Amino acid sequence: MALLQAYSLHKVLFFLSLAHPGTYLFSLSTQQRRLLCRPPQGKYIREDYLVKKMSAEEIQELVKGERNVPLVIDFYATWCGPCVLMAQELEMLAVEYESNVMIVKVDTDDEYEFAQDMQVRGLPTLFFISPEPSKDAIRTEGLIPLQMMRDIINNEM
């Protein structure tokens, strides 16, 4: 049915172009779209990414080492839709907190064994690790709102 509708629409457009010579059916090219819809700019839009991808060894060194700021670890996958949305929120969080929070990410496809060791079952998974060794880490699974991340960092870390 959809193929028949698409063919009919194509036929209608063809006959319209014959009936009205001098009119052309067109779509906006990518360049024209860029000119019409400029990308957003401002505080949260940056050319460089603040949230850096790290390996399992680098993450373990960060956790064991001396830190004076909370650490947020994002376990993600490139094929995961909610992970892409979470990455955007984490970038905004990184801009907002600047050097007061360290945010890193781990690709579960590249670091499969590490993700298993950390018992990552769903994506995205976040670990909030306090600089104080006496405090337990907080773990979340799935897409969470930006305000919830702020609350965890401000109140629990």
Automatic annotation (TrEMBL):
- Which key words are in the record? Chloroplast, Disulfide bond, Electron transport, Oxidoreductase, Plastid, Redox-active center, Transit peptide, Transport
Source organism superkingdom: Eukaryota
Q: Which CDD domains match?
A: TRX_family
- Which Pfam family, any one, appears in the UniProt record? Thioredoxin
User: Oxidoreductase as a keyword?
Assistant: yes
Location, primary (coarse class): plastid
Q: Which GO terms describe its cellular component?
A: chloroplast; thylakoid
Where in or outside the cell it occurs: the entry states: Plastid, Chloroplast
GO: which molecular function terms? protein-disulfide reductase activity
Please report the stretch or stretches of sequence annotated as the Thioredoxin domain.
Answer: 39-157
InterPro entries, sorted: CITRX (IPR044182), Thioredoxin-like_sf (IPR036249), Thioredoxin_CS (IPR017937), Thioredoxin_domain (IPR013766)
Q: Keyword Chloroplast on this protein?
A: yes
GO aspect biological process, one term: plastid organization
Q: Which family does it belong to?
A: Belongs to the thioredoxin family. Plant CITRX-type subfamily.
Protein's UniProt name: THIOREDOXIN-LIKE PROTEIN CITRX CHLOROPLASTIC
State the species of origin. Salix purpurea
Please spell out the taxonomic lineage of the organism that makes this protein. Answer: Eukaryota, Viridiplantae, Streptophyta, Embryophyta, Tracheophyta
